[in-house]
Amino acid sequence: MTASFKYVDDDREAPRFRVNRAAMVDPDVFARERDNVFNKVWLYLGHETELKKPNDFKTRKVAGRPLIFAKDKKGDIRVWINSCPHRGAMICREPSGNARFMTCFYHGWSFNTSGELVSIPGDQSYGEDFERPGLASPAHVDSYRGFVFVSFNPDVEPLVDYLADAKEYIDLVADQSEVGMEVLEGTHEYSVKANWKLLVENSYDGYHAVSTHQRYFEMVMASGVELDASKLGDSIGVDLGNGHAVIAGGPSTGGLFGRPLSDEAKAEKEARFDRFRQKYGDAWVNRMTGGRNLVIFPNLVIIDLVMGVVIRKIDPVSPDYMEVTGWELVPPEEGDELKKQRLDNFLTFWGPGGLATPDDVEALETCQRSFAAHRELEWSDISRGMSSPVPLGSDEFQMRTWWRYWDKLVNGVEHEVEPHEEPADRFKGDRLMLQEETSNA
Amino acid sequence: MDLDVDVPRIEPVRSTLDLSGGTLETAEIRLFGLPRGAALLLMDEGGLDTLAPELMNRLAEHGFESLAADLGSLALEDAGSVTAVEELLDVLAERGWSRDQVGVVGYGGGGAVALEAARDLTLGAAVSVSPRGVLDVAEPAVRSPWLGMFGELDEEMPLAAVLDLESRVWRGTEFSRLVVYPGVGAGFYRASASSLDHAASFDSWQRVVEWLNVRVAPRLSPIAERWAERQHIHQAR
């Protein structure tokens, strides 16, 4: 299906790249996104380490569907539609917990974490041959390095193929622990009165950092950091295929954000990365030390910045409203001092109580309010860096990559790949296996 | 622990059991129909005359048959305790209860035995209410889901000891949770006019029932059993 209305203006001659603001307000677009994107591709559900013990569960919403994300009695990850196959009531109404059996409070049907129906009150009334239904599940569930995805499309391609080159950037994050990266208990949950795609853009928008987050940088400088703005330029935008893209920071960007570490924390961090060098080689670890803002199409954000890895899931609710959930991914083996400073740096930047996230929310909500005039001012410009030999992190190449894939899925419009030169070698070092894996990641 | 409402009361049947570690006083409530599950109550000396009848009636309201044992008459060391629990589970097995259909709930000294049972046996669930001597339980990493509840003012279990126990129990394969009730002592689970005691007593009982309800495997109805059998045969083909 090709829409006659043009949502993405990808003019290579000018060059100029624009997105029609109707894409942010139109309920028909929102409905097509649900059908052609969220019902078709792989979607992030949660991280395996959120479920620590057999029969642990979390309830989540993915593509509008209520899901139970569980570890069954044997320790296998299971995902169930959170609805009783009898008459529809939610089986599980808690956000998280541990239960081997979940009983529907409506009529008392009971299911185990393997999805099997174990008891029906008064089941003799159903007769001997009644087919006892178990819990329903999404068409596919799979994981990569602990990141669990679901797809509601029976014909979806394998997850490893869908992730394409984004796998390498997940590896750069997952390799940062000797025992396996772990999601900390607790979440950031907030909502934004804006179209969900605005937060996708914002999540790897290097251009806005200094202007929008001035207050944060003033705080960092007041803590004694001499901010070297030239390091902001040591990053590039990379197209990872299938709409995924990343801002990949060079090694100098690792310490760009955040308050300075204590000597003790700095020493521990250096020692840890020395061990990684022995295991994976310098080229890979140099890449690990840099920051990265990764978006897995359509709505998973993994940002490795400010000493903390944030996993962000963006859920569209309506054209002008989204819900956001954020988690922190950490190496659990860190010492107390380094952990304390990681948490401090994470929380002063991210989340509804941080010094950066509220700025972003304000920016996005003003965008959305202004889109009421989308007929008078039709286009948003996302052209920055189209002429650059290699697109920088402060350019908008990564967003264009996302929008082209979005236009393909939602409107059936194919776009040519935007040509650029190969990035420098420091952005391409391979992961070596110089020592045996000890990680369970 | 008086009931607030007037409901029919079941008088537990008292008997004596000869176990390998000695003779044990027991009380039992059996239910007709298709009971939800079974509970094994481990009580301190005299508990069958004081606390147990009320607890057993409350469990019956939730569909649980129960067998209560007075452990006071036995001199139980670590291994011997678990052996006694296994022999009591055998009594329940005669009524058709498999171990994953049983929740073991221990009060006071019985609480430490419940933790030992959770450590050594695969049960539906285990609960220790204000356990005594629980710090002496060696390597308490659990293989059955275990809930421990304590009073903040319990001199035997200062908060640091509870936290230490929590981390040692958590090393086990199964889920565990420790709860400390603020401003109350070791007897928090008994009814009291004090508001903090009353809150702790009410909440701790709710937790016992919920812990069992979401973990103890239900007994299959005859129709469900036959259906499961057919599924098993179908899958084997």
Topology:
The complex is a heterodimer of chains A (441) and B (237).
Chain A: E1 8-11, E2 16-20, H1 27-38, E3 43-47, E4 56-62, E5 65-71, E6 77-81, E7 96-98, E8 101-103, E9 110-112, E10 117-119, E11 140-144, E12 147-151, H2 159-163, H3 166-174, E13 182-183, E14 188-192, H4 196-203, H5 209-212, H6 214-222, E15 235-241, E16 244-249, H7 263-280, H8 282-289, E17 292-296, E18 300-305, E19 308-318, E20 321-330, H9 336-349, H10 357-370, E21 379-381, H11 397-411
Antiparallel strand pairs in A: 1-2, 2-21, 3-12, 4-5, 4-7, 5-6, 8-9, 9-10, 11-12, 13-20, 14-20, 15-16, 16-17, 17-18, 18-19, 19-20
Chain B: E1 13-19, E2 22-29, E3 37-43, H1 52-61, E4 64-70, H2 78-93, E5 102-107, H3 109-120, E6 125-129, E7 146-151, H4 159-170, E8 176-181, H5 195-213, H6 222-236
Parallel strand pairs in B: 3-4, 3-5, 5-6, 6-7, 7-8
Antiparallel strand pairs in B: 1-2, 2-4
In short:
Chain A is of the alpha+beta class and 441 residues long. Chain A has 11 helices and 21 strands. In chain A, the strands form 5 sheets. In chain A, strands 13, 14, 15, 16, 17, 18, 19 and 20 form an 8-stranded antiparallel beta sheet that branches. Chain A has a 4-stranded antiparallel beta sheet with strand order 6-5-4-7, with no helix packed on it.
What can you tell me about this protein's structure?
The complex is a heterodimer of chains A (441) and B (237). The longest helix of chain A is centred in the middle third of the chain and has 18 residues, at 263-280. In chain A, strands 13, 14, 15, 16, 17, 18, 19 and 20 form an 8-stranded antiparallel sheet that branches. In chain A, strands 6-5-4-7 form a 4-stranded antiparallel sheet, with no helix packed on it. Chain A is an alpha+beta fold. The two termini of chain A are 41 Å apart. Chain A has helices at residues 27-38, 159-163, 166-174, 196-203, 209-212, 214-222, 263-280, 282-289, 336-349, 357-370, 397-411; strands spanning 8-11, 16-20, 43-47, 56-62, 65-71, 77-81, 96-98, 101-103, 110-112, 117-119, 140-144, 147-151, 182-183, 188-192, 235-241, 244-249, 292-296, 300-305, 308-318, 321-330, 379-381. An 8-stranded mixed sheet of chain B has the order 1-2-4-3-5-6-7-8, with helices on both faces. The longest helix of chain B is centred in the C-terminal third of the chain and has 19 residues, at 195-213. Chain B has helices at residues 52-61, 78-93, 109-120, 159-170, 195-213, 222-236; strands at 13-19, 22-29, 37-43, 64-70, 102-107, 125-129, 146-151, 176-181. Chain A binds chain B through residues 53-56, 97-103, 110, 118-120, 123-124, 126-128, 130, 132, and chain B through 124, 145, 173-175, 177, 213-218, 220-221, 223-224, 226-227.
